[in-house]
Amino acid sequence: MQMRLPVRWYRAVPAAQPQGLVEERWELECARTALVALHCWNIGCPGGIPVPADFWVFMGHPHNHEVAWGVMREQIAPALAAARRVGMAVVHVQSEPIAKRYPHLQPPQPPPVPSPPGPAPISDHGARRAQRVHGQGYLEWQGWERLDAAEAVYPLLGDVMVASTEQFDQWLRGRGIDTLLYTGFATNLCILDSPAAMKVMAGLGYRCVILREATAAVEFPDTWEGQQQTQAAVRYIEAWVGYSASNRDYLRACENALP
């Protein structure tokens, strides 16, 4: 099937007066496109893990977790269902502990490629700073053992789950998929920099698109109004990484997809 999707990107020239956001319409072959749900976790979700009071994990503040749950329920779940209807691949990018729960959905892992060790850290400052920010002992939080996909976006038979860039890339190449539509969390963190996320996949030549309403950044109490961190992360993607599209336009494109 084929679908027409409006996407946008930021043209930064001429430097003194940038053209700004440019919109174009793509003709997408559903068989060459994958919808990606990245790090849709069950923290702060109904039936999931309560947001810890002593640690800043996943989306951090309880308000952010409420926002993320709403995005999963109202935006990502319909996006996944639409992809399945038009025969588009649905891929869940998850951490290794979660992926191990779903061996039946995982493609083979390519053999690891040894790399030379880098220099040792000059101090443990990074680890100590992380403890100060996220809470002393956050890596030992018992909730990590119950971490799973959120119920609203639970993987189904026929979906795929990956935990590494190499695994994802190998699977995509084997199916001729070159366009990735990303949803999930957080726009200013894992969507950009985790394994199989937008920056590393764009570096491998894939066209990467963030669906704007189907994601949210980690916001702070002084940035909630206007979703400043989310908007900044989307603009970063549009200027330096790939493209963005409206989830509404994506859902409409799926409804109007043609054989």
| Integer tally of domains | 1
Over the alpha carbons, how many angstroms does the gyration radius reach?
Answer: 19 Å
Largest sheet: 6 strands, parallel
Question: Could you give me the name of the CATH homologous superfamily?
Answer: Isochorismatase-like
Shape: globular
Which blocks of ≥5 consecutive residues have pLDDT under 50? none
In helices, the fraction of residues equals 25-40%
Can you tell me the CATH topology?
Rossmann fold
Question: Which tags fit this structure?
Answer:
two-stranded antiparallel sheet, 21% strand, 259 residues, 32% helix, 6-stranded parallel sheet, Rossmann fold
Q: What do these coordinates show?
A:
By secondary structure, this protein is an alpha/beta fold. The protein has one domain: Isochorismatase-like (Rossmann fold, 3-Layer(aba) Sandwich). It has helices at residues 62-85, 96-99, 125-134, 165-175, 190-193, 198-203, 228-241, 247-255, and strands spanning 2-11, 20-29, 33-38, 89-93, 160-162, 179-185, 207-216, 243-245. The strands form 2 sheets. It has a 6-stranded parallel sheet. Helix 1 (62-85) links the parallel strand 3 (33-38) and strand 4 (89-93). Helix 1 packs parallel to helix 8 (247-255). It starts with a strand and ends with a helix. The mean pLDDT is 97.
